Amino acid sequence: MKYFFDSEVDGLSRETSHLNFIKSMNSDFYYDCMDEFSPFGNDDGADLLYNLEDWYRENKLIRNILKWMFNQIDEMGFEFKSKSCAQLLDLKVINEIQEKDEYLILSMDNSIIATGFGQIKITGKIDPKLKAVTLKALDRQLLINKGDEDSKDYVSRIEKMKTDLSNF
Q1: Superkingdom of this entry's organism (predicted)?
Q2: Which of 39, 73, 74, 113 is deepest in the core (most CB within 10 A)?
């Protein structure tokens, strides 16, 4: 299998992406590493993509991307474990967690979204379990941000990512 990695010179681009990613993720924001609302434009997403590329370079047989991803998130040092928090869609519980660990949910979701879209960008496909977790992260961000006038652009972007991810 051929993998597609970003070059240090060109960075994030269509030329360093799998054809399946290019066909389905045709909006420019997917290739904008400065756009906070893109999968790879925030710090967590950019770091995750970089680490994911390294993981694919080092591992010829790819197994258990979810375990790898949750380990990456948990290494950030949050109070709660990401694997259990990744299942949450109860706004009351999410708000309680955010009161105790302010950045966990957003960092976790940014990382999950970057891993899901990153796997497609690199390999042209997505693990079904990773797709489900990625969709849940997008749903969680919709739940948290819907109705907030300041988050209107972000909500629109999340809806676009959900639609594009449904092609896989």
Answers
A1: Bacteria
A2: 39
CA 102, CA 100: separation in Å to the nearest integer?
6
Q: What is the CA radius of gyration of the chain?
A: 15
Mean pLDDT of 90-112: 96
Q: What's the rounded Cα separation, in Å, for the pair 57 and 85?
A: 29
Residue 145 contacts residue 151 (beta carbons within 8 Å): yes
Question: By percentage, how much of the chain surpasses pLDDT 90?
Answer: 80
Note the pLDDT of residue 28. Answer: 94
Range of the domain at 22: 14-165
- Per residue in 104-145, pLDDT (tens digit) is 999 999 999 999 999 999 999 999 999 999 999 999 999 999
Orientation angle between helical segments 104-123 and 65-74, nearest 10 degrees: 140
* Nearest one of 153, 46, 165, 71 to 117, comparing CA atoms: 165
Query: Tokens representing 37?
Result: 């609302």
pTM comes to 0.94
